[in-house]
Amino acid sequence: MRVCVLSSGHSIDDSRVFHKELMTLKREYEHVAFVCPMETGYVRINDVDVFGIRRWKNRYNRFATLQDLYRRGLSLKADVYHCHEPDSLLIGWLLQRKLGSMLVYDSHEFHPESFSESLPLILRKPAELVVRGLEDFLASHSDCVITVNDFLVDRFKRCANVLKLPNYPKLELVQEVDFQDRDRELVYVGGLSPENGIAQIVEALYILVKDGTNTAITFVGYFTDRDFRRDIHNFVRENNLEEYVKFTGYVNHQEALRIIARKCIGLSVIQPANIRQTTCQPIKLFEYMAGGNCVIVSDFPAVREVVGKYGCGILVNPQDPLEIAQAVKRLLSSQAEMNKLMRNSRRAVEQEYNWETVEKKLINLYGYLEGNKEGVDA
User: What are phi and psi of 87, to 5 degrees?
Assistant: First the structure.
């Protein structure tokens, strides 16, 4: 069976798309190709044929990107097209109609909500409904929809077969951890944006430093907005926090995991701005746990389920810097509690929250598409 993964936005650096799903599929099938935005026209990585298309940077060249996606996808004449966004799903649907191929939609983002948030307020709800209607229509023509959490499972199960495939870290990428020889510091990995609580984190750090708590934080990632970057750097400078805050910018996935494994506490204080934030289980949570961090995270139901089950961190009001600071101080003041939570974090990933425990579902899905299985193992 020939498999082609189509994406208009994800690249060969993407942890879920390339390093997890594509590597799993490549073990099962000889012919696996990835069509994605890339500067070069073709490269072969880990025995996967990767074909580059133009990156879309604005609404004017987005159509050209989709043209590239269609032409390249058509030339590969795959048996299965595995798509990762509504627009690549549209291309997959056109290819399905032309070639009679099978179609898989991998929805691991809240695309209608995310698209509408970039528009003027008056247009957001109509745009969200239009994109959701298109997404539902295309999903109903898919042989299966893959998604990452119960909320999205409920959204799609009315129009398609649905497989829940959580975005857990790969154990093979996680280093052995040393619970003793590590910095008594904080780490944040991900986009540096208001909705991810970066302002609340630096305010909490200011409270800690002012109170005499000896710690620091490393931010791993890049700012998503120039004005927000300026505001955060101004706050750090005006409050004399330069020696307590480090911004690494972008680093590759393996280096990010190494940084995590050198720290004690991982922070994920996503703000309750919309349903995208409040229903997610962010991959950074599981990467912190894999690195043996105790975690301080937003008190949302999906996150509470993980932290409560294994006792690996503290839930906080993500909008309250004082509560975040108090949680950090509580952990740093009790090495015994911190050691216990760090070991619980690592144990949770080793036993349950790892890619190796869920990739069998992806293999079974493709067996079903190939005709070797009776149904989708949800």
Answer: -75, -40
